[in-house]
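Morning run. Coffee first, then this:
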Amino acid sequence: MRQQDVFDVVYTHTDGDPLCIVHSGIPYPAGSTILEKRRFLEQNYDWLRRALMREPRGHKDMFGVFLTPPSSADFDAGLIYIDGTNYSHMCGHGTIAIAMAMVALGMVRRGDGHRTLIRFETTAGLVTAEVANEGPDVLWTRFENVPAYVAAQDVPFDLPGIGSLKADIVWGGNYFGIIDLRGTSLRISPENGSELSRLGIVAREQLRQKIQLQHPSEPHINNFNFVTFWHEPDNSTSKYKNVHVWSAGQISRSAGGTGTSAMMAMYEARGEMKLHEPILSEGLLGIGAFEGCLIGETSLNGTRAVRPTVKGTASLLGTARWTIDRNDPVGAGFVIS
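And here it is:
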């Protein structure tokens, strides 16, 4: 067994959404950008992504992040998000969790006045996290996400068993196809998880045939991977309840941070939310909530965008040191459909 086949990870959850933080064992090329680091992982360590995200170490809905050295003094660390199928540009529940974990575990120097600022480099852009602590207790993270914008509105499609619907396509750190389920029989609840997963993939594949996306200021971003179903909240203090479906049918447990950013951009574009108006977003499990707010507007190479912040809390689950034998076909990771 070789030394580089041993990896230390930290596990967290954010309102039920898991995160596997890979923070050691990878010799990233010195001076490389975040995109170059992702290409390095794709070319040299994609086997590690599969081994940690898939069974027997992970599961279908496992999510993870490679915590990387920063590419310049403008950042404190890099984040490259992964699941058992793909790489993602950003993740809100993950950013909340990893920021809290870095402060709690001493992976970053704590700031003065019970607040620590962490500047993350992602393939979506700069994400700045503010982490609050009271003595040894780490309480929450609020992060300012990359600017969000609406790429398309009212894109028609048909959902089998549900009928004709429309979707808004919104960037919130990932591209989301946002689908309003109000007035339909489909409810967002854990017992409907398999059906939501199946229909999310059906909806995404239809929408992919109807739209072509290109981020206004990031040439490498043109992929559409997420679908969001939403309807009225169960909790009267929340603005909505939603679930996100992505990749091979993975579904979110929490309200989602990039998803909350996209939902707020959608609402604001439709005149149903104002700048500086805080909201609460509700996820699949209906526990906890993310607090979202649009703190201003900006421009993405001439396209109007809004500046979202999202606040939430996460919990540490534990740590692991994995040894991986790449000659073990089962231990290398597998998927059961």
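DSSP finds five helices and 18 strands in the chain. Good start to the day.
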